[in-house]
Amino acid sequence: MANVLINAPKSVKKGQAFEVKTLILHPMETGFRPGTNGTIIPRNIIEDFVATYNGVELIRLKLSSAIAANPFVAFQVAVTESGTLAFRWTGDEGFAIEQSVAIAVE
Amino acid sequence: MRRLALVVLAVFAATYAFAQTADKRRSGYADMDASVQKMQDDDTANPAMLWVQEGEALWGKPVGSANLACADCHTPARLGGMAGVAARYPAWSPALGRAIDLEGRLQLCRTLHQKGPALADESRELLALTAFVARQSRGQPVASPDDRRLDATLRSGETLYKRRQGQLNLSCAQCHDDNAGQKLAAVTIPQAHPTAYPLYRLEWQALGSLKRRLRNCLIGVRAEPYPYSAPEYVALELYLAKRAQGMKVEAPGVRP
């Protein structure tokens, strides 16, 4: 079960910057740790995070093994028209999660 | 002269009385870095809220042969219906005839009322449900019940807390009573008040129960930790809850 927390205002003022915060449940297994039997636990991380607004890319992150579990990403954005803020996390072992929230411009 | 001496004595007595009654207890929260405090206070940045969210989903899901969800008995199901409950545990269970903690209570509901299998100790589901219930007591004072049936458990908890153990031959009290506030390497030794459990520990990169934290300490003094089902944990949890009586619940907390 994908477990995601997204915090973004439902309505914003035109052109005024607001903060978007995302938190996702993920082990971010580094791929460098040996397991109990001495063999390396295979890497399992989120590789990409992309946020778009009405299809326009806002931010794209390349995550690495050095990022802690349950990555928290926050960024600021300003929009001029109402629309949909969409997020996509993709990673190892076919991990792919999409979530979106609607934002209304007053 | 005599009057002056009396006044001095009265002032001294008053200060002494104040020093005796002033609450010197402090949560581990107070010794944390400001950035970690901020993380705990902001529900949208507190990673433990991922478990709370999952717990809320599990709360409404029917389980076991009785096909009952937690929400079917405990209404309203929304956040707030179980306010103050977590603050009262560990408590006496007449059904089992012994003291149980919040996890034990959830397990009892599962096996007794929902007629389903118990959850694995420290499993994600159990932590999620515990976090969901505990979150609803945030801000409330710890209210460990004044129940005579708990006396024996409380006494054994106190004995365990004060007993030296492990290869390092240390008791809980030696660090958390005698040396609280001092440094253990770079870390400030907390007073060990269990007000934020279950909590997200940055070191664990996950949510963990008070039992897990107690196991940590046991391993730290090089004692063999009890199995998760051991009554020793509940006894210690009860004693710690009594020590923290009246302090504010901050669950689910964040610790470094």
Structure report:
The complex is a heterodimer of chains A (106) and B (256). Chain A is an all-beta fold and 106 residues long. Chain A has a single domain (4-105), classed as Immunoglobulins (Immunoglobulin-like). Chain A is 0% helix and 51% strand. Chain A is built from no helices and eight strands. In chain A, the strands form two sheets. Chain A has a five-stranded mixed beta sheet with strand order 2-8-7-4-5, with no helix packed on it. Chain A has a three-stranded antiparallel beta sheet with strand order 1-3-6, with no helix packed on it. In chain A, a hairpin with a 3-residue loop joins strand 7 (83-91) and strand 8. The radius of gyration of chain A is 16 Å and the shape is elongated. The N and C termini of chain A lie far apart (35 Å). The model of chain A has no long low-confidence stretch (mean pLDDT 94). By secondary structure, chain B is mainly alpha-helical. Chain B has one domain (27-255): Orthogonal Bundle (Cytochrome Bc1 Complex, Chain D, domain 2). Chain B is built from ten helices and seven strands. In chain B, the strands form three sheets. In chain B, strands 6-5-7 form a three-stranded mixed beta sheet. Chain B is globular and about 70 Å long. In chain B, 32% of the residues are buried. The model of chain B has no long low-confidence stretch (mean pLDDT 91). Classes of the chains: A mainly beta (106), B mainly alpha (256). At the A-B interface, strand 3 of A face helix 3 of B.
Return Rg of chain B in Å: 20 Å
* Uncertain residue segments of chain B: none
Major sheet summary line of chain B: 3 strands, mixed
Uncertain runs of chain A are none
Topology, number of strands of chain B: 7
Structural class by SSE content of chain B: mainly alpha
What is the CATH architecture annotation of chain B?
Orthogonal Bundle
Strand and helix layout:
The complex is a heterodimer of chains A (106) and B (256).
Chain A: E1 4-7, E2 11-12, E3 18-24, E4 46-53, E5 56-62, E6 72-77, E7 83-91, E8 95-105
Chain B: H1 2-21, H2 34-41, H3 48-59, H4 70-73, E1 91-93, E2 98-100, H5 102-113, H6 124-135, H7 151-162, H8 172-176, E3 183-184, E4 187-188, E5 199-201, E6 206-208, H9 210-220, H10 231-243, E7 254-255
Helix pairs in contact in B: 3-6, 5-6, 7-10
